[in-house]
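Two proteins were folded this term; both appear here.
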Amino acid sequence: MVAQYSEGFPCLKQDEKDQRLWVDTSSGFDEDVERFYQAVEKEDIEFFRISEKYARGLRLLKDLSKEDVRKKIKYIKAQVTGPITFGLSLSDQEKRPIFYDPTLREILIHHLSFKARWLEKRLHDLFPGIPTIIFFDEPALSAFGSAFSGLNQEDVTLSLNQCYSAVKGLKGTHCCGNTDWSLLLSTELDILSFDAYGYLENLSLYPKELKNFLERGGILAWGIVPTSEEVLKEDVQSLVNRFQKGVEALSKEGIDPALLKRAILTPSCGTASLSIPLAERVCYLTAEVSKRLRGS
């Protein structure tokens, strides 16, 4: 997740043999940072472009942008790595995560914000007139609140909100594990994507925050289709039942069912690690469950 969005980060080093990335602030750092901030100040979005070497899927989007296909698309979504996950996964030469360095944290927030802006613009160029959704994926937030994370809530919230503010369209975050959901629900995101198959009960522990989020127009993206071997045990009706039970459970916490049903249905996480047949089944079930619930 880090390598794909690391292109252009100041003083980034790569060891292809060990498949390791790190930031070396001991040599040439000032010069690299000066070039970086010149691009930021000029709002040079192309400086932060994502080349096809780093994101081969962008090339495939050109096929979807053909007019006959484009007519069927209501929204187009893409994602970048979130600032917490990026900052905890990428270290300096002392093997210290860069999120804990205020200077490097500020750089990474600008870096990811401009990556998101470039990606959003690219989607608008390919799909003119179609609303965009940009996610900042944050699997590392599943560690928030543990004795080992060392994360400060204020730093996390500020970092996320700064990234969200760079996006003109809808913005969201996906966390594929359990976390302190009150933190994400209190940020400025529009869409909260969660693993509803595995962690619905955990979200129900935050009824007040969830109610406030939904009442201000927030949307839940229910990851109701498992992205594991569990998908072989499920069918369309079993997943419809699971969603309806989830709505019922959250309704008992005082949340308006109508707000809960204003939802997006998704796989519980990405499918990159699955075999092609399993990934296809996940996508098929997601589409069919959505159709069933919409009554179409």
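Next, the second protein.
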Amino acid sequence: MTGTPKTIVKPNQFIPAGLESALLSPAGLGVLVCGAVIVIAKIIDSRGGVAKLATARWGGTREKTAARQLACKQIQQRLHNRVSLYVGTPKNITSEVINGVRRTCIPEDSTTLYFPEAQRGILVCGGPGSGKSFSMINPLIRSVIDQGLPLALYDFKYASQESADSPSKGQAPILAGYAIERGYQVTVLAPGFAESAVANPIDFLRSNEDSEMARQLAITLNRNFQLGDKDSGNSFFTNAGDQLVQAVFMLAKGTEYPDIMMCQAILGLPKLVKRIEQAENLNFMVREAFAQFVSVAGSPETAASIVGTASGLFSRFMVPSALAAFCGKTNIPLDLKGRQMVIFGMNKEKRDVIAPLLVSILHLLVSRNVANKRTCPLVLGIDELPTLYLPALVDWLNQNREDGLISLLGLQNLSMLIESYGENTTNAIFGGCATKAFFNPQDDVAAERFSKFLGEEEIKYKQRSRSSGGKGGASISNSDQNSTRKLFDVNQFNTLPSGKAVIISPGFRSRGQISLPILQSIKIPQHEIQSEADSVKAWYEFQKFLSKKSTLLTPADEEMKIRRASALKLLPLIENQEQLSEYASLI
């Protein structure tokens, strides 16, 4: 009897007998290749290596960690053109004075939201009540103060603090007191308030030949007067108007009384164009500044119209609050460094009179401080950007960031910014800020722009189809489909709760991409909220101290009479040839 062969399976044999030969057969190799292709395709698809319909994506913990690491490195290095700010003061921060120098230690904190590369500009947008100031702008400025950086702050809602416990109005109470407690020298320029310092705009001219600074002053002054004017096309404040105001500033600078009262006295002289023509003792640069105005001497009506409008411009400043703050010797710091803070406080009741000169001083101060490369950064904080016009703002954002200027800008609505600056300049401002925070805009136009800026993401879904007919009956098939949708649509922007924002920062980076957006609910720590209350108390006492030591003086009537007499002596009118010859012989 023949025995049947038996297959003996060893206990430690995991691969069944015959499987190896089956896999190495043509059919087996085909199965292996198909499986490998499927696995590779899945890996490539998961990594985004194939062409996608849309590539926008959200950042998260990884991106915020990368930003924190870069920011902490920049904070330690303290370079003038590599600056980092943060929201949410880190725990256990320490500050002490050693040998007369304040030293601050800022530890790394995983709960803090960091923003490296702040010198590339920060733009914060959000409607009223969206939390843009409380959740973003004010904490960022506190981080500036923690690091001891010089700061110029524009406070549109500036007001007198009624008591140490009353609610704060504007940014000054909750930020200036915080700065004072950390060793800052705080100066306030707030025309109409007793604590204001003095800033004579003509003091910013180095001499009566400083045509560049005079030009900047004239343009800033004129544009802020026509801010929001729908009929600016026929306005005086263009071309010849700017040139005349510039020339008057230069002429006044070389007199015994270099202030806006002297400018008004000069413009009030009868037959001004004829006086300028006859003046033989004018500086060459001053005469050239008047050249365009003198060229219309053949048209007395045109000359009179230009002078009349210019005189009307300066006559608006002839009010006690403006004269007290803008005439006299400047006592605000002109070269900002170290722990210095200058607050530009707007008096909303007198905005039409105060704003042009106040903004002009702000513009001149920043221009002066970024004219040369700095050794330490300078921070410019402006909330409610559409309420003022800064001609050089785009240049500051794009050219002066390497010189050490950090611009922190806030606004409620893009439409308001377009009305003040125009669409092209608004686009340049928007593009000039690398860090952007979008709170609830409460506006479809702004929300649409923000949504478009974020782009679209690819989505995958399964499509199920059913077909019937034929002898086989009904059949059901499932297929994977790809489509796109907005990363964050208009409705989502307009339903953001207070304190929640979409934030883009060059520090949010991963997988070879930067400036990835994150959706963040910003929670301010309780110790930081308490610091605001402490700041208000410190500010209340400091405001009273400034009022007592103020040097504000309202010019008396005699002051204007003296300047008119000086203007007549400077530009005498020669009515006939005999007088002209006599005058020439005296020169």
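The chain has two domains: 61-199+330-453+491-547, 201-324+556-586. The chain is about 45% helix and 15% strand. These notes refer to the second protein only.
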